[in-house]
Amino acid sequence: MAYEIELGGQAWRPGRVFLIGKNYRDHISELGDRPAEGPVVFMKPATSLVPAGAVVHLPSHGALLHHEVEVVVLIGREGRNIGESEARDHVAAYALGVDLTLRDVQNRLKKQGLPWELSKAFDESAPLGPFTDAAGIDAAGIAFQCSVNGQVRQRGHTRDMIYPVNRIIHELSGVWRLLPGDLIYTGTPAGVGALASGDVLEVESPVLAGASWRFK
Predict the structure, then answer these.
(1) pLDDT category, 1, cuts 50, 70, 90?
(2) For labelling alongside 105, which of 44, 115, 129, 196 has CA 20 to 30 A away?
(3) Whose CA is closest to 188, among 70, 35, 42?
């Protein structure tokens, strides 16, 4: 069954899920990595999306599953080569989501110079919370956090992004024609950590709807 987003009487069916890596310096540091020369872009299939409140099944092809909380952008208006000053006109809503990463698999793939899909793009790898209409929300003013079993692990703020939302939309639209329903996970702050069966992960923000998932 296709994933559907409903908000304000409108409905979108996500086709593409774009994700931005290395967008918070503290996360880059905690992984012992270096900033990239531009936005790091990868993608996940729509089958990676998991709605709020659902059970997330642990993947079996890796041993170390990490959570990465992120602010997610819903594209509501088609565009190509979108200027940074026009980017907000193409945003329908914002949400909190989680980029699940099999860190052991990713590290192995990196050492071999291979693509990351096996560590990032598996089914149920992108839990996604409810959307909040973009009207009145400052993309550079969103604080957010992630807790596991009631203990806060990640705190972030979009003002700390290396590449802010408008720049991300500009960069992506220079390569792909962005379409209504496209999703953009905008990167994660420091504090990523392991998840195990029975864990409950919760994401929160003062301006966006919260959500939680249980892992099995």
Answers:
(1) low
(2) 129
(3) 70
